[in-house]
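Memo to structure team: turn this sequence into structure tokens by end of day. - J.P.
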Amino acid sequence: MNMKKSDKLNVILILTDDQGYWSLGCSGNKEIRTPHIDALAEGGIRMENFFCASPVCSPARASLLTGRIPSQHGVQDWLRRGQGEKPGDVPIEYLEGITGYTDLMARAGYTCGISGKWHLGATGYPQKSYSHWFVTLGGSGTYHDAEVYRGTKRIQTHGYLTDVITDDALSFIDECHARQEPFYLNLTYTAPHSPHVDQHREEYVRYYEENCSFADVPQDPRHAGSIQFPHDIAYSLTMASPEREYLTLRDLLSGYYAAVQGIDDNVGRVVDKLEELGIRENTLIIYTSDNGFSCGQHGVWGKGNATMPLNLYDTAVKVPCIFNLPGTIRQGVSTDCLLSAYDFMPTLLELLGIENPEADRLPGRSFLPLLLNGQEQNYRESVVVLDEYGPNRMIRTKTWKYIHRYPYGPHELYDLEHDPGERFNLLNENRYFFYGPKFIRQKAAEMKAQLDGWFVRYVDPEIDGAREPVQGRGQLCRLGAASEGKLTFSPASESEYRR
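Reply from structure team:
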């Protein structure tokens, strides 16, 4: 699709933080209130099987931005150091020298802006061709009167952070419209990331506490690999009222749901602004999250690093995803085709008519025909999604999932047709009488071979996550020779619950 400069679409990517695919009304949750997001789904297409590239924020965000898997861009865990926000922490531009789609869009005449979370290093100065830079500190923090960087200046904000981020985004839209410039906006909320308690709108929290059964969030027995004090629970308590001595599950869930509803309110504000300016019909809106989240499913509270070994359950790697462009993208439909965050960049660029000279080096492929024409058959045959979190790698088809942990395991194999909840690891126990051990061994070997071949094709050997000691406690510097022999990842023994 080729467009004249005067016909350029505006693009808004609404990216949330730690949002499970199950946490929207349009995805089947009967109790959470998300009317504005649901309206985007009703007027567009909702992806039922859209997967992040890694189940933790920094590598997942880097993959969305660059189209590369973590073992190509070198961000393998959430970034503990390199933000440059504290004394002694030298800023590191982790994606320096790597092309992001914003670089290509800026060259094509777009004004690119980010409002919200960055968490890809060197927070205090604009990167990746963003001319508008309004970013939060680190990976998470208070939702009240938070500090941010506006350009290179660190400032104090006032108010509820989700609203503050939206206020800035709306100003950016106004400025671009006044200058008649096509724009790309990365509206990247910190919500619903922890802290979850005593941080969100009191009336929303009270509503869920008093009226919600949370039946859409099954509470399974505690996972054997769950860390002793799940990060989000401990972190929520540090930001909670000093009068609280403990947290209940209802406290946490009410806060999580309230945070999502707060996002929904602000999505409504964005759509209203576009309609007010008369540019709604010319603005592509994408809604998704960096990674998934478990609120009790599998006995886990958190994402991929909520357990040891790190987990790759669907609740951690599958995220909500909606594409909406009136008159162009199909409306009121959903698709169960398997798609990945590494497919996002080629899809967006093809829709905008922007070429990427590095496309052949990237693992993703455009799913634009799926958005425009409903050509789903091309995405059903022999399609797999692959994921990684350090030495943990996953390959998933519609009916099977295999997880390999280098070098020693434990490995996992799930029959998703008969066990969609991933409850029975067939490499540990054969619960289905029609399987024999030979079949299980062959299926695991077949999927491992496919996984190995795919990663060999795309990884950069110098920053291959399969040989990195990633334990979910944070990355400290660049990998490979660029580390200069320094410790690259925090070991679990040095874990802290503020990030």
